[in-house]
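Async update (no meeting this week)

Hi team, since we skipped the sync, here's where things stand on the single-chain job. The sequence we agreed to prioritize is pasted below, unchanged from the tracker. I ran it this morning and attached the output directly underneath so nobody has to dig for it. Comments welcome in thread, and please keep replies under the output.
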Amino acid sequence: MTITKRISNLKSPFHGGRLHEASQQFGIPIESWVDLSTGINPHSYPLPTVPQDVWQKLPDAGDNLLNVAATYYGSSHLLAVAGSQAAIEALPSLRSHSRVGILSPAYAEYAHHWRRHGHDVQELSVEALGAQIAHLDVVIVIRPNNPTAEFPHQTQLMCWLKILQQNSGWLIIDEAFIDAFPESDELSMITQDSVHGLIVLRSVGKFFGLAGIRLGFVWTEPALLSVLAEQLTTWSVSSVARWAGAVALQDDNWQLLMRQRLVQDSRRLCDLLAKYEFEFVSTPLFCTVQLSTTQRQAAFCAYQYFAERGILIRNFEHLQAFRLGLPKNEMAWRQLEQALSELKR
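Output:
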C-alpha cells in the first residue's frame, strides 16, 4: 500500500477537556469545575493498585490482554492500540489517494487526518452518503454518532459495504460510545469472523471511564491488522494500559451494573433537559442540546455562559448546539440544573 504525502498546514480540531486552560481563562480553580465536555463515563472503573512489576517491565504482546479482549468483543481479530485515536491517525496512511465520505457532522479528527494525507474528503448526510456510495473508496461512520447520536442500521451499513468491496474499499465504523448500551453486543458490527473491507474501532476510554490509560482496539481482517501494527510505534500500548485493560474488560459484574446505572443517569439528564423544554438527542453517555432559532445567539455564547458558572461543556457553534456529559455527583447535578434554568430564562 502506498503511503501518501502529508499536508501539514491543517489546523488541529478542538476537543472537550482542556480543563486547565479553562481554569486559567475564567479564573476558577480546577477543583471547582464540573467537566461535562467529553462524554466520558464519570464513574470510572475502580482499578486496583498497579502491581510493581507492571511498572517495571516493557509491554509484552504475549500477555493476556488480547485473549481477554477476544472474549469481551466476541472475536480474536483484534489489535490493541493507544486509544482508538491512534488508529484514526494511522489508517489514512495505509491507502493511496482515496475518495472518502464521512457521515457528518462527526468527530472532527477523521476529516482532519484523511485530508492531512492528501485524500479527497466529503462530509455528507446519510442521504447524500447513500447517493454517493458508488463513487467513494472509504466510508466512515461513527455509531452512535458524536455529537448527533445518529445510529445507522446494520442492514444499511452492510449494503454500503458490499458496494465498497467491489473496488477494495473500506467501511470504517467507530463504536467508541457503543459499550454503554445494555444491548451493545447485538448492536456492534463486530462478528466472530473478520469481514473483508470492514474496520471497527473500539475504545476503553468512554464506557470504562479510563481515557487516561490510552487503550482501544481495531477489529478487521488479519492482513490489514498486520499492516496497521507495522505502522504504529513499537510498544505503543504501555504495560500499565495493557494490565488495566485486561482487568476492566473481564469484570462482567461491574459492566452489567454500570450499564444499568448509565441508563438511569441518562434518563435523569433527559428529564432535566425536558423540564426546561430543551430539544435534544441522547446516548447513555451524553446529550446534545439543539437550540431553537431564537436561541442561536445563546448557542454561540454557550461555552462562555457555562464556563462562567464553572461548567465545562462541548460547544458546536456551527450546529447551534452543545453537548453535555453526565454529572458525577449530586453537587454537579444541582450546578447544572441551576445553569440550565437561567439559560432557558
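Quick observations from my side:
The chain has two domains: 19-44+253-344, 52-250.
The CA atoms of residues 202 and 224 lie 16 Å apart.
Reply here if anything looks off.
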